[in-house]
Design goal:
Helix content: 25-40%
Distance between the termini: 62 Å
Number of strands: 20
Number of helices: 17
CATH superfamily of the largest domain: Mur-like, catalytic domain
CATH architecture of the largest domain: 3-Layer(aba) Sandwich
Length: 469
């Protein structure tokens, strides 16, 4: 779309006029910088504000846009008072008092996803959910590439949505978080899904019902709804007046699993698409992810066999059920991206044999009692670390042996002393990482480093490690 068409849509949808608007971008991170470049390209007047004294990307930003007003060290109400529009980054809560007052005084909130939706005429696929959305987003992107399409993949994953505009793609695949969706109103995706809903981000959302309502906003518009009928919360999001495609790993659906003879297949209605065994990912939850990606791809016209070929080559994401090593017959798996209870439960449910689980971190206000049934069923023992380790230990209430570790090296050493050949040690924290690490990637890398350090000791007898129960 050309700039005149984009500007016309921004005026129509948000009264966002380059001649009169004064935009305040709240948050100087990846999203904020992408918004700044976008606004500059359309000749908008804007400033940036960040509560941090020196945001990590500040020096880089000043090199790119030295004349842009930037306010740091707090949310100065004077800056908000003159703004006609606020573009609030997902990392900033809409419950900040300065934002609440600005909205009460007439400022309009516009998201980067709104700006993106007004700037493309190619189809958008929107993917949300508590768990699996990065995997499904990446899967679908690989499927589109295999079909020979120019595809833009990003949003909450990787590249900010507005930076994808430079690709002039034929298809856009966006991962969207609840924080992005709660401030978005202009999105009308050609196909959209909420993969599942489980307790997450309850430090920012009032309760699970509010969190689910924000997720449901991904279905605004008139595109195809891809519904996981295994999830009772998602299943209630159906709209009888909309095109709906279902998927399930437990029952018959438009996309489901079924046996033909002794072979289990990924199915589209009555058609066998590919044997489940050819999917190179651990865990049945990844079968659900594959079915969701196939359903989304069919909804936007991708060829089924091309998509299946892409699935056969898909190696998964770093820090998501990633095999690190096998040492003395013990398999070590990095699922550091499991930053909430639902992700940890999904990982555990993928195992037929009980595992040694390493968990803990910042629970983000979630009720750790919801983790107990899966751990009782699937864990041989649990090694806990991090800020809210005590909450998990309390919730488990002695249903499995629990050990405490002060850091990742100690956690890995304890797990090594507990695991027998044929078993798996799973890092699937069920918590955020920022209490001890830069992010979940850093946590996963520390786990990998500690595991690989065991390789040098693999020839020596097991060393018993002291652990506190």
């Amino acid at each position: 779309m050309d700039s005149a068409a984009i500007t016309a849509l921004l005026k129509k949808n948000f009264a966002l006029d380059p001649q009169t608007a004064k935009v305040l971008v709240v948050g100087l991170g990846d999203t904020g910088i992408s918004v700044a470049h976008y606004l500059q390209s359309l000749d908008f007047k804007f400033a940036i504000i960040d509560s941090r004294v020196k945001p990590p990307m500040m020096d880089e930003f000043f090199q790119q846009m030295p004349d842009t007003p930037v306010f740091t060290g707090g949310f100065d109400e004077a800056a908000f008072k003159v703004a006609t529009h606020l573009v609030v980054s997902p990392g900033v809560s809409l419950n900040e008092q300065a934002i609440i007052k600005a909205v009460a005084n007439g400022s309009k909130i516009v998201s980067d996803i709104d700006l993106f939706a007004c700037s493309v005429d190619a189809p958008i696929v929107a993917i949300s959910g508590s768990n699996g959305k990065s995997t499904v987003t990446t899967m679908l992107g690989e499927m589109a590439k295999a079909a020979g399409m120019e595809v833009g993949v990003g949003g909450n994953l990787g590249t900010p949505a507005l930076d994808l505009l430079a690709l002039n793609a034929q298809l856009y695949v966006l991962e969207l978080s609840s924080f992005q969706l709660e401030r978005t109103s202009a999105l009308n995706a050609a196909a959209a899904t909420v993969l599942n809903v489980s307790a997450d981000h309850l430090d920012r959302h009032a309760d699970l019902a509010e969190y689910a309502r924000e997720k449901q906003r991904v279905f605004r518009g008139d595109g195809a709804m891809i519904i996981n009928i295994d999830d009772p919360v998602v299943n209630t999001m159906r709209d009888a007046l909309r095109k709906t495609v279902t998927f399930s790993i437990n029952k018959k659906a438009d996309f489901h699993l079924a046996f033909e003879g002794e072979t289990e297949y990924l199915m589209h209605n009555e058609s066998c698409l590919m044997p489940l065994a050819e999917l190179p990912l651990e865990g049945r939850h990844n079968a659900a992810n594959a079915l969701a990606a196939l359903a989304l791809g069919v909804a936007v016209g991708l060829d089924e066999q091309i998509m299946c070929d892409a699935l056969r080559k898909f190696k998964g994401l770093s820090h998501r059920m990633q095999r690190v090593a096998e040492i003395r017959g013990v398999t070590w798996v990095n699922d550091s991206k499991a930053t909430n209870i639902g992700a940890c439960v999904a990982a555990l449910q993928g195992y037929a044999r009980k595992v040694i689980l390493i968990a803990g971190g910042d629970a983000k206000g979630a009720d750790m009692n919801e983790l107990t049934p899966a751990i009782k069923e699937k864990a041989k023992s649990v090694v806990l670390m991090g800020k809210d380790a005590g909450l998990i230990k309390q919730a488990l209430n002695g249903c499995v042996p629990v050990y405490s570790a002060g850091n990742m090296v100690e956690a890995v050493q304890i797990a090594a002393s507990l695991a027998d050949a044929g078993e798996s040690v799973l890092l699937s924290p069920a918590c955020a990482s920022l209490d001890q690490y830069k992010n979940y990637q850093d946590r996963g890398e520390k786990f990998t480093k500690a595991v690989l350090a065991l390789v040098d000791r693999a020839a020596s007898p097991k060393t018993p490690f002291m652990a506190t129960i």
